[in-house]
Design a protein that fits this description.
This protein has 13 helices and 18 strands. It is α+β, with helices and mostly antiparallel strands. Helix 2 runs parallel beside helix 6, helix 2 packs across helix 8 and helix 11 packs across helix 13.
């Protein structure tokens, strides 16, 4: 639905069952779940959809191998279940990926192999592949850039395109009646006599405002949730393909973190740092010190050291971690569990979690709204096996990146505006196409054309 029609739909209704504040993975998932249950839903996102951590993730659908060390088996099991849901419901943007752990000795292989057998067991019948031992030759066949190792362990997780998955969720929500506005701030102005929230929506592009009532307000604002979350900065770098057909997990770096090297959209993605920060921002690129750490640490496992000149793009995602009372430990030790809490008579907040568990977070917050009597019972949650709607034109545009004709790029811009509410060149180049996250120089080259066609499309309404 074109943006102006969306705004008219917002203005056309005075009272909504659910108002979702936040248009990242969890907010969009909540809008979809609520709409499938039969509630009327409006969503407001102050910036672009998935403009925060939801387009800047590590691109993995996973249970969290490192959480096995924390003995958080329930969290891992839930995430593995949700991994299977995403792989089944969004095959156009999510696939199974084999991973390799290089091991210096048979003892190391036995240690990591036993943990990954538990990982397989926790996945149960929804496992996507069984872990097994690899010879040195087999490791090199899948990751020829690595230094030779005595052995390796193979296991399986998921790889996905986060921003494109967000758009699939948004499209599926719209198809079921949800009204989604990006670049639109939501402010709670008070409470009606019946407890409904009085909310003012303000458009960033036109300064227009609209006031509405919401029987239930759900805040899904991720790292922007204030003191309720601890925020960790996760930096990533992207390079031209260094020769990986499988993902690589380096389970122990010199400072105790883990490092992933992934084949992603014809490139190699390396991440991530885990730095506690006081608050998030919208950095376009990773800080130099983070890039240096990623290059140095990855190079220790590679035959040829990486250099800064190889980095074609970098980005930062801010993880929202539920802050335990009196917590002082390093953010890398915080759980990725999510929390639903009531913040007012008819308001709830959902915080924490990760991309893989977005659907379960949405289900839990809506179930809580019903349990608290904020929403009347409706149809049960049905998103576990709900196929998400693709946009073939944009979902697979990355496969021919660098070869696009002017006509193709114009088509991409038209679909980004008409079908996915893109408003700026960054919306198109970073979150509808993925150029800005794989080749920032190419994104800058394309920017003038995108801005020109974007202006034409937006002025045409």
């Amino acid at each position: 639905m074109p943006r102006e029609q969306t705004w008219q739909a917002v203005q056309g209704q005075a009272t909504w069952d659910v108002c979702v504040v936040g248009g990242g993975a969890t907010g969009l998932g909540t809008a979809l779940d609520a709409a499938t249950r039969g509630y009327s839903v409006v969503l407001a996102e102050a910036e672009d959809f998935a403009s925060g951590a939801s387009s800047r993730s590590s691109k993995m659908l996973h249970g969290g191998v490192r959480y096995l060390q924390q003995l958080d088996f329930a969290l891992v099991k839930e995430a593995l279940h949700e991994r299977a849901n995403v792989l089944a419901n969004a095959p156009h943007v999510a696939q199974v990926l084999p991973f390799v752990i290089p091991c210096a000795s048979l003892a190391h292989a036995a240690f990591y192999g036993s943990g990954l057998k538990l990982y397989d067991l926790l996945a149960g019948r929804r496992n996507v592949g069984c872990s097994h031992l690899l010879s040195s030759k087999q490791v090199m066949a899948q990751a020829r850039a690595l230094r030779p190792s005595a052995h390796g362990i193979q296991y399986y997780d998921g790889l996905f395109d986060d921003a494109r998955l967000a758009q699939s969720i948004a499209r599926s929500a719209r198809q079921r009646g949800a009204v989604l506005m990006n670049y639109c701030r939501a402010d709670i102005r008070g409470q009606a006599d019946d407890g409904a929230a009085l909310i003012t929506l303000s458009r960033k592009d036109t300064a227009e405002q609209h006031s509405l009532r919401a029987r239930c307000t759900i805040f899904a604002t991720g790292a922007w949730s204030g003191e309720r979350v601890a925020v960790a900065r996760g930096s990533h770098i992207v390079l031209p393909d260094i020769g990986l057909s499988s993902g690589v997990l380096l389970p122990k770096t010199p400072d105790g973190r883990v490092l992933f090297l992934l084949p992603w959209q014809g490139h190699t993605l390396i991440g991530t740092t885990d730095i506690a920060v006081s608050q998030p921002d919208y950095l376009d690129t990773a800080p130099p010190e983070d890039i240096d750490w990623l290059l140095r640490t990855a190079s220790q496992a590679l035959q040829q050291p990486l250099t800064p000149s190889q980095v074609s793009a970098s980005f930062v995602g801010y993880r929202p971690l539920v802050r335990p009372p009196g917590a002082h430990k390093n953010s890398s030790q915080f759980s990725r569990a999510h929390l639903v809490e009531r913040t007012a008579e008819r308001s709830l907040r959902v915080v924490g979690g990760k991309w893989t568990t977005y659907r379960r977070m949405a289900q839990d917050v809506l179930d809580a709204a019903i349990a608290h009597g904020i929403l009347s019972p409706a149809a049960p949650c049905s998103t576990a096996d709900l196929a998400l709607s693709p946009n073939p034109l944009l979902d697979h545009a990355w496969q021919t990146q660098g070869q696009w004709s002017d006509a193709q790029l114009q088509q991409f811009v038209a679909s980004a505006v008409q079908d996915e509410a893109a408003c700026t060149a960054d919306d198109v180049l970073y979150r509808r196409l993925r150029t800005g996250f794989t080749d920032q120089a190419l994104a800058q080259t394309l920017r003038p054309q995108v801005e020109r066609w974007l202006k034409t499309r937006l002025s045409a309404g």
